[in-house]
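Sample A.
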Amino acid sequence: QVQLVESGGGLVEPGGSLRLSCAASGFTFSRFAMRWYRQAPGKERELVAGITSGGGSTNYGDHVKGRFTISRDNAKKTVYLQMNSLKPEDTAVYYCNANRGSYSLEYWGQGTQVTVSS
């Protein structure tokens, strides 16, 4: 059974930091690119960050460049999102995504809430 389980969300003050984790099971994690998306109330889901299957390349949405860092540990089957200098506009549900486009395979986690507020 495929599972992506996010954790690490919560309430943080502006300027603070959080680290999200996404633990994978039920598929060959090391063969999948991993991405974090987010969706704020009333807005469309948007890409936050992505990392290739081997971890050698990353990409970020313009709104988080320089503040967020995506990484992965294939031995632990986990992808991380380190979020620094958080802003109220970062408030959203954050989703983990596994993608193997060449095989049309895509999996989603259930999401974790991040709220940035004083």
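Sample B, a different protein:
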Amino acid sequence: QVQFVESGGGLVQAGGSLRLSCAASRVSGMIFSTLKIAWYRQIPGNQRELVAVISSRYETNYVDSAKGRFTISKDSAENTVYLQMNSLKPEDTAVYYCNTVLASGRPTDYWGQGTQVTVSS
């Protein structure tokens, strides 16, 4: 089972930027390159929300609130997916996770620890 370790979160003022990293382990580079991987976020008490997704062919999609501000990218040589977040808003505050997206469109049941992003106003 692919394992992900998220990092790069922190405390930032509104309008600032952060770059999150999602490093995959227990997977070969060849397999990693075939995966569809997404960033999700969760506020305590709420369901996880899909924020951005990148396919094996580097096609990307974003939740409306992230369009124009966030950029998802993938480095298959490093088995890592990134989320560049610009123009951050207080409502972006959440724990951010990454996961593989299955053919069903749902994430796997295996989640990492996530990385906390806090945006102050």
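Observation for Sample B: The mean pLDDT is 95.
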